[in-house]
Amino acid sequence: MIEVNDLTVRYGGVTSLDGMSLTFADGVCGLIGPNGAGKTTFFNVLSGFVRPAAGTVTAFDENLLRMTHFRRARWGVRRTFQTEQAISDLTVYDNVAMIHSRLRGAARRDDVVASIEFVGGGVSPWAKVGSLTAGQRRLVEVARAVTGKPRLILLDEPAAGLPDEETAHLTAVIRGIPEQTGALTILVDHDMALVSAVCTTAAVLDFGKLIASGPTAAVLRDEHVMRAYLGTAEV
Amino acid sequence: MIDTAGPKAPAASSRPPVLDRRSLTRFAVIAVLLLLAIFALPPLMSGYYTDTMTQVAIYSIVTLGLGLLVGRVGLYSLGQLAVLMIGAWVGARLLFATSQPYILVLIEAGLVTAIIGSLITLPALRLRGLYLALITLMLAGGVIVVAATLNFPNGGGGFSGYNGALLHIPAIRRPSYAGTDPAFYRFSVIVAIVMFLLVYAHLRTRPGRNWAAIKQSEPAALAAGINTTYYKLWALALSAFVTGVAGALLAGADRELFSIDFPIQNSITLLAVVLMGGAFSLAGAVIAAFLQAFLPALLQNWGVPNDWLIILFGIGVMQVLATAPGGIADQFPKDMKRLYRLISRLWRRPEAGIQAGAGGVSGAAGVSGGDGA
Amino acid sequence: MPSWAEFQPYIVTGLALGGLYALSGVGLVVLYRATGVLNLAFGAVGAMGAFIAYSLIQAGDPGWVAWITCIVFGGVVTLGYGMVFGPALAGRGPLVQSISTLGLALVLFGVIDLAWPTTGGQSPSISFPTDNGGFSVGQLQVNWTQVIALALGVAITVGTAAFLRFSKLGTAMRAMANDREITATLGVPIRRVEAAAWLGCGLLAGIAGIMLADLSALDDTTLTFTVVISSLAAALIGQLRSIPVTFAAAIVIGLVHDLITPITQISNYQDMTPFVLAAIALLVMSRGQVLSRSREEG
To answer: What's the confidence (pLDDT) of residue B15?
Structure first.
């Protein structure tokens, strides 16, 4: 369980997050909102790249903000980015093995291979990432997110730009993450079909403020949410 | 790329296959070339070119260090010359003041340089890459100032080891087993090989992979749990270490060190040749060393002013950054492959072949020549 | 420890040099903010312009023709570089684009050495008629050139700050510094704004070059590197963003550098001033940093 209390982020006169207070339940939670609503900023706070002006984040009873960025990763925060982070010249195995893990030796190797097998999609551990398709490279990012006993997984628009069949496969993979890893997953995406398919709960941000949260189906029907989206002529 | 000659066949187990035919052939070719360089070259070279090739061997270590930073970690340093000077100074001082074995002096010079280099760059590590480049440029300026004042050791006493009043300046000593110029040349080549192996070992193991991650994207590396400040520092320290060793070698090669031997524009030309030679591969470091140390000697022999080379390097930097980030080392094999394909295609059409072949070959050669510059 | 009287003359020279460093530093910052490129060829461009002016004067042209040529040369070369290599390197990031300007610096440096070889005999120099006139403040001698140098520094700083805030072109530059894509979608002709920034930076390089050739030395190494390092240090301390801080830092660098001259124990090391000051500034800056990528690269 993750508890966010009164989180505020200001940068250069703009308030990207304004007193956000929310509790994330276990499983997969969706975080949606128009562009510029503060979703990426929120991820940046969780990853440790941005220091909030105010507020606290308690994850599994630990004060997350107290840890420096790479220590959070070692504690178990995993994140995918909107741009690809896997290194094309290295193999899939090397890319996944780069993620810090508390396991050692043979257990570590098996865990890496298991993560790669979990995402499936025809991705071989010994292929160079540069030789994979775009969809397969996304799966590599997900493999990097589920390896090494993660506790909190942040998925930043994993389905952006993918064709339908690959989105369908990705949906199945994401749905399997809680069982595979036991981690809490927060998913940011604009694909409402994906969000309603995998997220049990959802929260909506607009202009840095939380405007709705709760079970996904209810949130997606909320009139404030629809106004926020239609108002920006997006989606 | 030379260094990521990786496994080919997919395996069900969690161990990748280690060696395959391509990397074995590559190792064999490199080994043969090195053996030729060590044994076959010296009798063929005049004294002038023996000295020049010694400089090439030494500077290949410097370009190795800089290539590591630029090509592997994404850190641009404009202060590699300053690091070299520190190494040369420490080496010369130790060689005059002590009678330690040469190898020990090399290592000590490397370590001292590594410590100083790390301390200087520490403030800039957590800031933008541009700031690191700038602070290293200023470091170069600063060190050159100090060197002009302090002078290089020349056998005198005191901390600086410099005595301006000395009439007869003793030559910096060389190892007892490598006193002559050809012997010192071989010694330098062997030290260079050891340094290359040291860096290569880093690249193939965890530091190398983490550096690749940092170069790709620092936020992502942090998100993967990599302590980027620590690894950046490690790269800087390793780069400074090998360059320090090169500096101490330089002391023995030149036997007398003067600060005018290190003009500040070399700080920039070093980066230029590394970019042009190819920052991403070890072969690129060797090519860069040839550009930095061999071409000037060649031009000097022919009576051509060195300034043409500086202009060439300036153009080279702009061209490499704009079009061919991998430098000559990257472009040359690609051009050779293109040439090969062109020739084999023409070979199959004998009638049209002969005339078109002549035109085609010179055209393709023009392409590779142009990219090389 | 030298006496106050021994320090005094260096206050004047330090302020004059500081003014020129401020002029250069501000030029660097404005260009960086508008285009994302740090023009490290600033000094080389000014140096070559100064040498051209020198040759013109040797050939008999009146002084003002030579100086104008120098300034125009600076503008043209810098603008030319920006128009060719701006698009070629677009999107590669400030680091790569700034390193590329070093290529230009090398080319110019080599050309200067070829065209004006330093053979024996009289070393070239530039002098202005204002070098001879001056006034005294107490026991201090101040010549008009030094006054002009400091005045130019102040004028350019104030003028640039005002220009950025109040003029349409200046506002466009500030918008581009913030976010280029959005500015483009707002209908701002970013190419033209960039060209203006490059041209402005080049003209300032020419002015700085000719003045430093007079006040300091007409020497390619000094003008290409030493000056750039001092102005860069000032711009760095201003975090490549703040014009007032850049100005203040430049003045401080100029003053500290020259005031060290009479202190014989360390006077040999005075050229390390910009380095030491910038290193301290960077140390202070990195205290508050969480990540080394700022938003623009994030």
So the answer is: 53
Whether residue B22 lies inside any domain: the answer is no
Decide: residue B249, CB within 10 A, 0-12 exposed, 13-18 middle, 19+ buried.
Answer: buried
Which residues in chain B have Cβ-Cβ distances shorter than 8 Å to C103? 272, 313-318, 321
Residue C26 is predicted with a pLDDT of 93
Q: What is the pTM of this model?
A: 0.80
Q: List, for residues A25-40, the tens digit of each pLDDT value.
A: 888 999 988 877 788 8
Q: Given this model, what pLDDT does residue C290 score?
A: 52
Residues of chain B neighbouring C102 (CB-CB closer than 8 A) = 78, 268, 271-272, 314, 317
Check A126 against B7: CB less than 8 A apart: yes
Q: Best residue in C290, C295, C297 to probe A by mutation, most A CBs within 10 Å? A: C290
Structural domain span for residue A84: 2-231
Site from A50, A68, A156 to mutate, C interface, most C CB atoms within 10 angstroms? A50
Confidence band of B241 (pLDDT split at 50, 70, 90): very high
- Kindly list the partner chains of chain B, i.e. chains with 3 or more CB atom pairs below 8 Å: A, C
B135 and B234 share one domain:
yes
Looking at chain B, which residue has its C-alpha nearest residue C280?
A: B123
Domain C4-115+138-285 has CATH 1.10.3470: yes
> Residue A122 sits in a domain of what CATH number?
3.40.50.300
**Structural domain total, chain B:** 2
Split at pLDDT 50, 70, 90, the class of B367 is very low
Domains held by chain A: number? 1
> pLDDT band at B211, cuts 50/70/90?
very high
Residues B330-358 pLDDT 10s: 777 777 788 878 888 877 765 554 444 44
Amino acid at A73: A
So what's the ipTM on this one?
Answer: 0.86
Q: Are residues B93 and B70 in the same domain?
A: yes
DSSP-derived secondary structure for chain A:
-EEEEEEEEEETTEEEEEEEEEEEPSSEEEEE-STTSSHHHHHHHHHTSS--SEEEEEETTEEGGGS-HHHHHHHTEEE--SS--S-TTSBHHHHHHTS--S--HHHHHHHHHHHHHHH-TT--TTSBGGGS-HHHHHHHHHHHHHSS--SEEEEESTTTT--HHHHHHHHHHHHHHHHHH--EEEEE-S-HHHHHHH-SEEEEEETTEEEEEEEHHHHHH-HHHHHHHHHTT--
| pLDDT mean over A77-90 | 81
User: Which of A160-164, B76-80, C120-124 ranks highest by mean pLDDT?
Assistant: B76-80
